[in-house]
Amino acid sequence: MSHDALRTILPVAGLDPERARTVEFTGGSDPILPTSFKIGETSAACLGAIGLAVADLWEQRGGKKQGIGVDVRRATASLRSGHYLKMEQAQVSHERNPVMGMYPAKNGRWSYIHANFPNHRAAALKVLGCAEDKDEVRKAVAKWDALELEEAIIAAKGAGGMVRSMAEWAEHPQAKALATLPLLEILKIGDAPAEKLRDGDRPLSGIRVLDLTRVLAGPSSARTLAEHGADVLKITAAHLPNLGYQEFDTGHGKLSAQLDLRDPAQLQTLKDLARETDVFIQGYRPGTLADRGLSPEELAKLRPGLVYVSLCAFSHVGPWSSRRGFDTVVQNVSGITTRQGELFPGKEPGPQFYPVSAIDYLTGYLMAFGALVALKRRATEGGSWLVRISLAQSGRWLVGRGEVPEAQLKDIPAEFTPAEIEKWSMESVTPAGKLRHLAPTLQLSETQPYWARPTVPLGYHQPVWPARP
User: Fold this and answer.
1) Which residues of the chain have pLDDT under 70?
2) The model's pTM
3) How would CATH label the architecture of 101-178+327-343?
């Protein structure tokens, strides 16, 4: 249940696990969608943790104690919020590239080809020596040993992997390295005086957040901080590949600017922004930003008191620490798609994705939770802080919550009712038109979350902070 899942999160942040009892969970329990994995209880638990951390910051400001509520069904819907987007009443497409998927390899094994980003797709196709055609990819993969193909694609700077069972993954050196880590880490990395929260009528009033992340996990963490009043500035660059429709999902509440960090002048602009920020969120592989002077330690020297949130695919330890990865990659290499395919076969045999982007959004929620906890520590004891997590750590936690018994996995609806989606949705007027999308899920009695800004196209704003009130 969600209370039990929440009790496993709170101690990681030094919070009393019994505070889980103060969160009201409604809306039933797993299974909610067709999967044995407990996506309902875990999503609700992560949002409940955010509620407790937000309530703490509000009380730190002198605000009243908050009532905290999470609807488990609504929380589950938030794990695929990109499915519920309508622009001017037309459904926003969330289709993946048709080449992306799992293919039979030699000896009865399967291989996952990640092909959503054009650079990763090109890397896989170059290794396979075939055209961008699903049938051609199928023929090419069938000639490969899955493990050899995994290594060849990674060496070519692509992404993907051999599909494993849970038992196989448990014996893998990377899984064993992950087992040495907590769900997330909140580490003090420098000294700085305590910073009193700025005056304001929202829990994160006056807090500035730099968002240097892409896809879903990192952007959803910054979106979550914007829900509670933070000024979020997303930084991307014109040359970086992106899936534009995802901004309609994760861009709520944010400003958006572009900086090319290969240009020394634009890199300096980012550092100048960092001097005036409170939270810096990045989603690059460990060490990638160090050569640009953007490591946690370097930025903490530049801006004492910084909360640096770091996301990667497979954590900072183990043989895969520098490996590219996404929610779908983690699902495949860790046994999730194998188990999903056993219980819920698809149109074609073999491994299957679960029906949401659970690892992505759970990780995003946990990143936001860690940032909120670190902001309170900065306000009370000072210091610069590092919040560190990976997709694989969140996946390990999700799987570790156990599975719904098979006997309960009968006749599960594949979708929420239209009435539920309508009830949970709102409309925003964006530069691209009227956008219908899910509203914030978390319910707070004193500071109900909302986004003060609509989502905008990438690079819509200049890279400058808005004036604080």
Assistant:
1) 243-244
2) 0.97
3) 2-Layer Sandwich (3.30)
